[in-house]
Amino acid sequence: MTTETTDTAAAPTAGPASTPLPHDDLQPHAHAHERGGEQAGEHSYVHGYSPTEALRLGDQADTLAELLHAGTAYPAGSRVLEAGCGVGAQTVHLLASSPGAELTAADISADSLAQARARVAAQAPGAQVTWHHGDLHELPFPDDSFDHLFVCFVLEHLADPSAALTALRRVLRPGGTVTVIEGDHGSTFFHPDSAAARATVDHLVRLQADAGGDALLGRRLHPVLAAAGFRDIAVRPLTVSVDDSRPALVEGFTRRTFVAMVESVRADALAAGLSTAAAFDRGIADLRRTAEEGGTFHYTFFKAVAVNP
Amino acid sequence: MTTETTDTAAAPTAGPASTPLPHDDLQPHAHAHERGGEQAGEHSYVHGYSPTEALRLGDQADTLAELLHAGTAYPAGSRVLEAGCGVGAQTVHLLASSPGAELTAADISADSLAQARARVAAQAPGAQVTWHHGDLHELPFPDDSFDHLFVCFVLEHLADPSAALTALRRVLRPGGTVTVIEGDHGSTFFHPDSAAARATVDHLVRLQADAGGDALLGRRLHPVLAAAGFRDIAVRPLTVSVDDSRPALVEGFTRRTFVAMVESVRADALAAGLSTAAAFDRGIADLRRTAEEGGTFHYTFFKAVAVNP
Questions:
Q1: CA dihedral in degrees (A129, A132, A136, A140; nearest 10)?
Q2: What string of pLDDT tens digits covers the 309 residues of chain B?
Q3: Is B296 close to A219, i.e. CB distance below 8 A?
Q4: Considering CB atoms only, which of A189, A216, A219 is closest to B186?
Q5: Are B142 and B136 in contact (CB under 8 A)?
Q6: Which of A177, A215, B13, B91 could staple A205 via S-S, CB 3.0–4.6 A?
Q7: Whole-angstrom distance, CA of residue A77 vs CA of residue B163
Q8: Cβ of A243 and B236 within 8 Å?
Q9: HSE-up of A214 (CA within 13 Å, CB side)?
């Protein structure tokens, strides 16, 4: 069950995210069923699918775009697949960095895909993107359909990232590259240090694991890519270090990205019995303290580039 | 109580580290006493002063030199003070990067200073260095004696790093810069993850705190420099990320630097009751596992440059 559409500058632009779009009737649980429930889908996406979450992802991408996308530019005419485009937070940056590339953006969530289309229509109105609604484990494209794959903040939500990469490698031509970007919540540290704050981050890691994902994936991108058959694997750490000299990151990364992300699992953490309300709120307060004067906050993303032999 | 000597190409070269040198009669505890015991000195240096430790520091500096020293080059004729040169692990790299700079290297340990002289004589035989034996909190130099300060892996051993930097700032001319490099053991993470391995790292942090230092100093360089009166503070994270694609770092950093450092506090950790022998050894074994095939290891240093207003 896959659908595909192409947006161009001449096509009707998608409306705001709240506007009904053609794929809204496709429910994610159907895909989960098709996959035999083995992979995490929309139903288990740890961060949820609220408008607030979409805003958070947009903020995150814009603040971090320079860091994450530096060095990623695909030649005009090259066939690029963004697997797991979500709400299009990275898509708009891919389009900006690689004008002329033939971009296909795929996601398992019809609602996210609709938001991605709306975002691209608003932020890159002249861009041409082929939108594909489907599961990245079962892409209908022929072998060797793409020159490059781009997979950002996707594998962390899957139970078997090497299996996903193996499936994706099928549609990548020999000699083509895959670029994978992931965070690692275990890389988080801050000043002032706080056991309560560390505990809230641990809860997020635990909830993501319970949902079948791995919030500590960044650290193992090399072995995961190797297990999927990729070669010439180069993984670079991209460490975000926030202090008083970087007010835009204090606001855009520490507060609006990281603390907001941890705070978003409050109800789930309490429901799962991982924390009391008081302990969770103390942890959040201590995390917020790291964004005040004299505080610092540090987090490492990993960006891997590897070749399909 | 300070002494000063100058080595030049024409001066008698210092012998190997075991050769008695003029300052060997100066005992570090005398300096500790002079400081009122407030600051950590040789007696409380958590890593100890063994030949093995000196070798470890040399390995560490050589492996990491490119990372840590990139961008640090002082003009010919500029007056540079390396405060806390230790066994000269960084000194030789400073000399290589800044030919023609007038380097003064100071340390509180006569024995370390002797080793530093020997190292420079062996590795940079034409270099001219003014060696100063004394406490960086009580340097005898007039105000504004230096154009630049370089302080690497020193402040982590001091009880009050801002006080040390304030004392150092006195001998730095207005407009001069300080460069500070520190690690942060709390930035450590690895694959496969292991609670036992994390515990051994925590023991090292605890022992260093018990000795009056702070193995988590890297994360707070910005506020520490601000409190010492520096301005235009720019702190950069330097993350070392080790996997199968980097065999030199697997050996030189993960095994010979980090695991060796943690292993070196085994006796102290057991004596302090922080761990059992079995638990400690399991932690070390798990740390070593991260240097085997498919393992990864990650650590963040911080490099700060700031201006004396």
A1: -110
A2: 445 665 543 333 332 222 222 222 222 222 222 233 333 333 456 666 665 665 555 555 566 888 999 999 999 999 999 999 999 999 999 999 999 999 999 999 999 999 999 999 999 998 999 999 999 999 999 999 999 999 999 999 999 999 999 999 999 999 999 999 999 999 999 999 999 999 999 999 999 999 999 999 999 999 999 999 999 999 999 999 999 999 989 999 999 999 999 999 999 999 999 999 999 999 999 999 999 999 999 999 999 999 999
A3: yes
A4: A189
A5: no
A6: A215
A7: 59
A8: no
A9: 18
Considering only alpha carbons, which residue of chain A is nearest residue B300? A239
* Contact status of B300 with chain A (Cβ, < 8 Å): yes
B189 at A interface, C-beta within 8 A:
yes
Residue A115 one-letter amino acid: Q
CB within 8 Å: A216 and B233 = no
| Interface membership of A226 toward B (CB under 8 Å) | yes
Chain A residues in contact with B234 (beta carbon < 8 A): 245
Flag if A191 and B223 touch (Cβ within 8 Å): yes
Distance CA B232, CA B230 (A): 7
Residue A43: is it exposed, middle or buried by C-beta count within 10 angstroms (0-12/13-18/19+)?
middle
Compute the distance between CA of residue B5 and CA of residue A1 in angstroms, rounded to an integer.
80
Whole-structure pTM value: 0.83
